[in-house]
Every structure is written in structure tokens, then in C-alpha cells.
Amino acid sequence: MTAYKIGVGINGKVAESGEALLFEDVATDPRYPQLSHSGLAKQLGRALASFPIKVKGKVQGTIDLLDTAPRRFAPEDIQLIGSVANQIGVAIENATLFEETVTRAKELSVLYDVTTVVNQSLEPDLVLKEVIHKILEVTPFDAARIYLLDSQGRELRLKAFEGVSPEFASQTETDPVGVGINGHVVATGEAIIFQDIQTDPRYAEFARGGLAKKAGFHAYVSIPLKAKEKVVGVMNFLSHQVHRLSAKDIALFTSMANQIGIALENAALFEEIKAKAKELATLYSISTIISQSLDIDVVLRSIMHKVLKVFGFDAARIYLLDQDEEELRLVAHEGFSNDVNIPPSYRHDDGIMGMVLKTREPLFFEDMQNDPEFHRMAYKKVMLRAGYRSQFWIPVRAKGKTVGVVNFVSKNVHRFPPNEVQLIRSIVGHVGIALENVALFSEIKQNSVELEKMNVDLQEANRAKSNFLAAMSHELRTPLNVIIGNADLAKDGFFGNVSDGQRDALEKILRHSRVLLKLINDVLTRTKMDAGKMVLDLSTFPVNEVVAHTQTYTDQLNRNGRLKILWKVEPNLPPMTTDALKLEEILQNLIGNAFKFTQKGRIEVQVRDLKEKDRIEFSVADTGIGIEEKDLTRIFEQFHQLEEAHTGDYSGVGLGLSIVKRYLELMQGDIRVESQPGKGSTFTFTLPHSVDSRFN
Which residues partner with 623 through β-bridges? Predict the structure, then answer.
């Protein structure tokens, strides 16, 4: 193949001008010696025609036609040769387009494969391994590695590799940010590309140890991985061959890096949601433990057991200040073997524990054995000598004061990310609440003893107790409403997307929290009654208005359509003058009971006007478990429950029906019940059209 420079020789002139050159006889045409570069046409023939080959108006080559005899080029000859040259240009254009199309299809296939891998899993390690395997299948590179930044953003750590030996990978396991090729890419956010590290002087400038060069690699590409515009890692490729990457190749690698960034972002979001769900579930569990017992030993052991299980610690111990606040005394421990000598007490200013007590801030050591700060602060080193490697100290606060210290220890090196530290803070905060509850209970018991000794009037004592329960109910409702509100927001995706499993867990939290809130409200209502503070809020209203509100409440209970609900409300009911809210609460209590004790079947609600008695009759009938005859006379007693009500399916405290009866007494109503075991129950009550205000 002969090459010609543009502008030199006949072909060079044709390529430069884009116009054909015609020679009828190169032997006699004076132009030929001046234009010819080699004189080859004169050696091969006499007539010469050189035409440009154009693609999209741009000269891409030339076509030469020779004849052994002189000839005159007629216009039709010139037109024919020009058409042939044009057709060759079209063919070249089509071939180029086809090659570009094949290349683009290959790029799209690679991106599709990478995107598919990214969307198949939320496990980062699995995604990274699959992605580099897929990329190496369709690129000319022999090896690939992916590094991610650590949580402090100071060091790159190798997370996935293929095409290099484990020995090579172990030698390149970490890279500090700003040091080496990968460290420089992270620091600048810009890719670094070497066609051949064996000859490129820049490689020696950037590389830390030159391991890739020693291993015989030539091409080396290092591209930043970004999530939310922030560099989170590096992806690099190595080849034993020299490669010159085009702008399109670089764009393809960048697109693949972006897909990996999306995968990392999705995985981080998933982990965040899991952490939030874990936090809510753990705090709910701890709250349940505290609410179930006032035995401080049982509560503390249960809390420690829960923390050990959730966070993977091996053991825990709790020290509380004595009355003189001079010594911290061991009150509970969990997870220690019998051969571990746990100190029974410490002075309030003793070592690490004294420091935590004084500063009121948590203190942790991820690796006591290699932490110089630990060796400086700890002089006894009890846990280190017992074989533990990491520990976490956190103060216990109650009523605004630091009253003790909790210590968690692990036999392995334990990392303490900020979210874990915050969750442990919250849990230990509940330890303080438990201590306050115990102290409050002790105070109540002491007050009760003193009241008995002083022979205080029993009615006044009961009223004081009711006031206290009312106040406590108010205090309990506030944090419970916060739990319900936050769980509801989390379930609706306010803090981010949630999985089906997390949504089910949040539903359970909401359901049990609402049950607990109703119990608290019932206690508050009952204590108001006992304290003589319950009055009627009289108004005149249409009965259908109360019925509509009750139907909305019933629809919420029956969201899953478990039961068939029948409403038989007589039309044109007269208005009532009574307490509308209490009437609505009576209906809700009775319907709620019907739902609780009816697993399948129906609930029927009837409302009719007893004109001859000047009263309205309401009834709620179900097909539930029914009531034994011996219980019919006692179900309206305070705290009375059926035997079945002590199971998980029918849990409660037995206040609902007693409240219903007291409300009806205030509203000049009456109630009766008809029931058969296994066939259901019917509660029927009546109220006057208008309450006599003299009895309010």
C-alpha cells in the first residue's frame, strides 16, 4: 500500500482540492511531471483519471483509473467515474455507520448488564464482585479492582477484585487518600489513564510501589466512583496489553462507574432504613421490658440481655452510686463467666468509671490492647486482663442527675459507629427511666404506709391515688403519642423507603402502641370518675352524626375486612340532648370489645327510637366467643376480665365496660347483656332523648 501526503503528488492534490485530475496522455501532458510524486502512472500506462472519494462532503480517499493507451475523457466518462467514486463514498459511510452502531449496541449491552446486576441486590460486596466480572467479560482488560472509602473518609479499602492473584490483592489492600494512583483519583475526583505504565513516566510519579508494573501490566485505568456527587471509591482496570482509550471508551467506563455509585447509594439507603427499623424495634422492646415489671433487678438484666443480643457484645455490668455518692456499687451483670473477677465497687472518682461519672459523657475503646489512651487512663485493667478487647462506658441519668455507669465489653475488636452510639445512649436513657419508676413506686409505697399510719380518711387517700394515676396517665400519653407519630411517619416513608418486612414491623408497633394508649386513656377516665371530676358536656345533636363517627372508627378496625359489619339505623331519629362524645365512646368501647372477641362472622349495630318511653335504644351484637353465665353479673366491674382475656389474643385490663356503665349512669341510661358461650353476645343500652340537667 502506497501512502501519499495531503497536497503532495496527484492523489495528494485531489485529496486537498476535492476536484478530479484528468490526464489524456501522461507521456505528453506537461502537468504530469510537475504533479506526479512517483511517476508510477507513466510506467504503467498512458491515460490517468484521479477522482476524490467523499463521505458527507469530506474527502476520505481517491480512486485512480489507468489506460495503457492515450484516450480522451468524454463528459459521460467523467460523470460515470464520478458516480462510481460517490457510490464508494456511500459504501464507506454505511460501513462506518454500521461499525458505530455495533459499537454502541455493545456499549448499551454492557451498561444494561451492569445495571441489571446493580438492581438485583442490595448487598454491596455481591454487587461489586458481579459488576467487575461482567465488565471484564466485555472489555479488553484482564483484571479489575474496586476500592471504597472507610467511614472516616481517610483510607481506601479493597472490596472486590478479579484477574489478579490473592497475593497481589493483599499487597494492594489499602491506599491512603491522596497517596498513590487511587488515592490521587479520590482526592481530585478525576480519572487517571495510562496507555502503557511500562513506558509512561507519570506512572512512577503517581504509583506508590510500582506493583502493577512489576506484575507485567501495561494499560492502567483508574476511575472515581461517585454517589450523590461525592467520591466514595475507585474502580481500576489493568491489562497485559497496551491500550489507547478513545473518548467514547472513557465515557463508557464513566457510565459504568456511575451505575456502581447508584448501587452503593441504594445499599447505603437500605442500611439506613434497616438501622432505623432496628432502632425503633429495640426501643419499643426496651419500653415493653420497663412497663412489665417494677423489679429493678429483672428490668436491668432484661435490658442488658437485649443490648448484648442486638449489638453483639459479650457481657455487661451496671454500677450505681450509693446514698452517700461516694461509691459505685455493682447492682447487675450479664454474660460474664464464673472465672471473671468483677469488682463489687469503685470509688466515685476511680479511673475510667470515675471519669465517665464526672464528665457525664460516654467513653469507648475499640481495641483496649492497642489503645495508648486506654493504657494511660486505666490502672487496674480488669476487663483487659479477663480477655476482653473493647468496651463501652456510658453514664446513667435519672431525674437530671448522673446516678451510675453501664459498661459493655466484647472479646473482639468492636467498632462504634455514631448511629450505634446514639442508640445505646437512648437505651441507657431507659435504664434511668426504670430507676425513676422504681424510686417513684417506692415513694408511693412509703407514702401509702405513712397515710395508713396517720389514719387518713380512706376516701381522701383513694382520691389522692386517683389524682396521681391521672397525672401519670397524662405523662405516659405524651411519649406514647411521640412513638405513634414517628412510627406512622416511618411507615408512610417520611424518613425514606421501607420494605414490606419493615412496614409489617411498624404496623405491629402502631397497633400495640394504640392499644396501650387506649388503656392509658381508660385509666385516666376511670381515675377522673373516682376523683369525682367527671361531668357531662351537654349539647343537642342529630343521632346520625354520632353514628357516622362510629362507622368511621369501625372501618378503621376492620381495615382487613375480617368481619362483616351490619348497620340497622332507623330513619328520622329525633335529636338527642346529652353528652355526644361520651355516647360515641360508649359505642366505640362496645364495638371494640366485639372485634376483640370475634375472630370471624359479623357484628350488627342497631339504633331505634322507643317513642313510648321517650328513649333511644342502641345495640351491638356479635358472633364471638360469648360469655359464661357466671360472668354476666361481673363483666361491668372494674378490672374484671374473662379467663380468655389473659391470653395474647384477648389482652386488656378490664376497664372498658366499667367505664361504659359509669357513663350510662351519668347520662341516665341503662344497659343489659345477653350471651351464650360460642354463639356471641348482644349489649343493649338506652338513653333518654334529653338528659335532665339537674342530675349533671
Answer: none
Architecture of domain 539-695: 2-Layer Sandwich (3.30)
Give the whole-angstrom CA distance, residue 41 versus residue 110.
Answer: 50
- In the sheet with 47-55, reading across from the earlier edge strand, the strands are 21-23, 47-55, 58-67
Mean pLDDT for the stretch of residues 39-53 = 80
- Supply the DSSP string of 287-347, one letter for each residue: HHHHHH---HHHHHHHHHHHHHHHH--SEEEEEEE-TTSSEEEEEEEES--TTS---SEEE
Residue ranges with strand state E in 189-291: 192-194, 219-227, 230-239
Quick check: 92 and 100 in contact, CB under 8 A?
A: no
- Name the residue type at position 128: L
Phi and psi at residue 695, to the nearest 5°: -95, 0
CA angle 542, 521, 426 (to 5 degrees): 135
The alpha carbon torsion through 509, 513, 516, 518 (nearest 10 deg) reads: -140
Give the C-alpha separation, 181 to 221, whole Å: 10
Q: Per the confidence metrics, is the pTM higher than 0.90?
A: no
Distances (CA, A) of 219 to 128, 171, 212, 237, 257: 22, 19, 10, 8, 18
- Considering Cα of 187, then 190, then 194, then 200, what sign does the dihedral take? negative
Predicted confidence at residue 378, as pLDDT, reads: 82
CB-CB contact of 581 with 537 (8 Å): yes
361-390 pLDDT per residue, tens: 888 888 988 888 888 888 788 888 888 999
CB neighbours of residue 62 within 10 Å: 19
Q: Which residues pair with 670 in a beta bridge?
A: 686
Mean pLDDT value of segment 3-9: 74
Q: Which cell numbers hold the place of 538?
A: 351537654
3-class DSSP state for residue 622? strand
Confidence tier at 640 by pLDDT (50, 70, 90):
very low
Check whether domain 9-97 has CATH 3.10.180.10, yes or no = no
Top-level class of domain 293-455 = alpha beta
* For residues 344-370, average pLDDT: 85
CA distances from 390 to 305, 315, 374, 429, 549 (A): 18, 11, 10, 22, 57
- Long-range contacts, 295-300 (Cβ 8 Å, 24+): 296/331, 296/434, 296/435, 296/438, 297/331, 297/332, 299/434, 299/438, 300/331, 300/332, 300/431, 300/434
Three-point CA angle 160, 166, 170, nearest 5°: 80
Write the CA distances from 385 to 97, 214, 312, 353, 380, integer angstroms: 74, 46, 20, 17, 9
Tally the residues of the chain. 696
Within the chain, all domains assigned CATH 3.30.450.40 are found at 9-97, 121-271, 293-455
Most confident by average pLDDT, 104-108, 325-329, 531-535: 325-329
Strands in 230-239's sheet, in edge-to-edge order, are 174-176, 155-162, 143-149, 230-239, 219-227, 192-194
Determine the 3-state secondary structure of 172 from DSSP.
coil
Residues 298, 157: contact at Cβ < 8 Å?
Answer: no
Tell me how far apart the alpha carbons of residues 686 and 619 are, in angstroms, rounded to a whole number.
Answer: 9
The Cβ of residue 4 has, within 10 Å, a number of other Cβ atoms equal to 16
Mean local confidence (pLDDT), 651-665:
73
What is the architecture of the domain spanning 121-271?
2-Layer Sandwich (3.30)
